[in-house]
Amino acid sequence: MTTTGFPTPVDVPAARQTTVSTPDGPFTILELDGAVLASGWTSDLADLTGQIHPALRPATPPIVVDPAELGPITAAVSAYYDGDIAAIDAVPVRQVSGPFRSHAWDMLRTVTPGHPVTYAQYAGLAGNASAVRAAAGACAKNAAALFVPCHRVIRTDGSLGGFRWGLEVKTSLLAREAGHSAAVLAR
C-alpha cells in the first residue's frame, strides 16, 4: 500500500474482463475481486481503462473470461435488460476519487430509475447545490457505466446533455427505465 492508502498498480491482482451482448450493443465489464472497476458499451477494453483511477488500474492485462464467470455481475446486466431495472443496484463497484466525486457516485446510485435528475439536482444530492460543474465532472469520470447510472442525469432544460457511450444509448436506457416505471405505477 502507498502512504495515501491506495494500492499501487503492482499490488492489484489480475482483473477479469468479459463482453456481453445487449440491445444497446456490446457491453464490456472489467472486474476485480467481485467488484466492477469499469464498464461500458464497447468491445474494446482500451475504451474503459482510461477512466479507472491509476491506483486501481490493473498492472497486467485482464484475463478474458466467459460472461458466466462473472456470475452476479453479468446476471444483473441480463436481468436489467430483461426488465428487472433494479438488478444493477446490488452490484459492487470500486472507484476512487476525491471526497466530492466519490460521494457523488454513491448518490448517483440512489437516483430512481425512470425519474432522471438534472445536473443541478444531482449537485444538490451530492451535497453542494452550487457544484453543478463538479457534478457533471463526476458523470464524465464515472468508469462504471450502468451500475453507477450517470445516464439518469439530464440538463435543466430537459435535453439529454452528454453521455460517454452516445446519446442513442442514453436515450434507450432512459426509455427502458421510463417504461418500467410506468408499468410499475400501472399495477
Molecular structure report:
This protein is α/β, with parallel strands linked by helices. Helices cover 33% and strands 14% of the residues. The chain contains 6 helices and 6 strands. The chain has helices at residues 46-49, 71-81, 99-108, 119-125, 132-140, 167-186, and strands spanning 16-22, 25-32, 35-40, 63-64, 117-118, 153-154. A 4-stranded mixed sheet has the order 3-2-1-4. It has a two-stranded parallel ribbon with strand order 5-6. β2 and β3 form a beta hairpin. α3 (99-108) packs across α5 and α4 (119-125) crosses α5 (132-140). The longest helix is centred in the last third of the chain and has 20 residues, at 167-186. It starts with 15 loop residues before the first strand and ends with a helix. 33% of the residues are buried. The model has no long low-confidence stretch (mean pLDDT 89).
